[in-house]
Amino acid sequence: MFEKLRSLIFKLDPETAHNLAIKALKFNKIPNFSVDKNHQRYLETKLYGKKISNPIGVAAGFDKNAEVYNSLFNLNFGFVEVGTVTPLKQYGNPKPRVFRLEEDEALINRLGFNNSGADTISKYISANKPNGLLGVNIGPNKDTKDRLNDYFLCFKKFHNICDYLTINISSPNTENLRDFHDSEKLDNLLGELNQERIKIKSSIPLLVKISPDINHDQIANICKIIFKNKINGIILSNTTDKNRAELKNLSKHQKGGLSGKPLEVHSNILINKFYKIIKNKIPIIGVGGVDSGKSAYEKFISGASFVQLYTGMVYRGPNVVSKISKELTEILKSKGIKNYQEIIGTK
Fold it and tell me: What structural domains does the chain harbor?
């Protein structure tokens, strides 16, 4: 059905189409999809002590205001990450701010952390118990005078109502946010958050979402800082504001973060470089171009323990998890592998 509707959906402005999708999920207008039980044994795993049916999650950015995470669980996602959430409500950047690059199976967005704010979103999550593993992605307000304090405020608001927190330091759409990749600033941010976690005796896992545009010479030092501050995982990667040369669509020069297929190989290379240092000490969540069993397989052999997608659902439809699960299981079966965890980092 999605294949028939896609041409109509793609005539709409991308942000309008996305808002309609959120409303459809919110009011259960999209049917649930089942995953073959035979596939599940190849894909079931654990994330931060919780058993999940598969390692395929929704990346932050899709459910910014934590409105439809339970509907997304009904689409068979193994876990869902909502946000990015900032302390105060903010509109984000002026429209238009999302661009669909069909020929490239990609999106460019410069949304700018548009969300309802930590108070509203935390109240909604507290009132609507998640039916699966839920992560919350947090960041600072655009006009804040103290970005570190903004992370603190969100940490305190969400640490006891979700399964993990992601520290977003990598969006290209908030000016100078990526400065936190600087060793001293990153160490200070993660160190302060870890101390706060210890102080309030919180066991919430903390993850960091890394930019794909870092200099690869920074990788070893980033890993050192992550281990020093007892960070529990990394997400590789966010959208890129580079890698435009080979794109076909005329919107390729729009300012913003590029996601989807053009990011796939670049993301896999980054994952593999981090994995060679991190090994299996903490999980890597791989993001960028995941839309099929093959693309998920490439993430896993590169070193990702889990994957997330957003743009893949835009182009493949709400049944994307079932499709990936089937295709990935067929690949694993053909290689005599009993569970996908056997292939992590084998590239």
Answer: 2-343 (3.20.20.70)
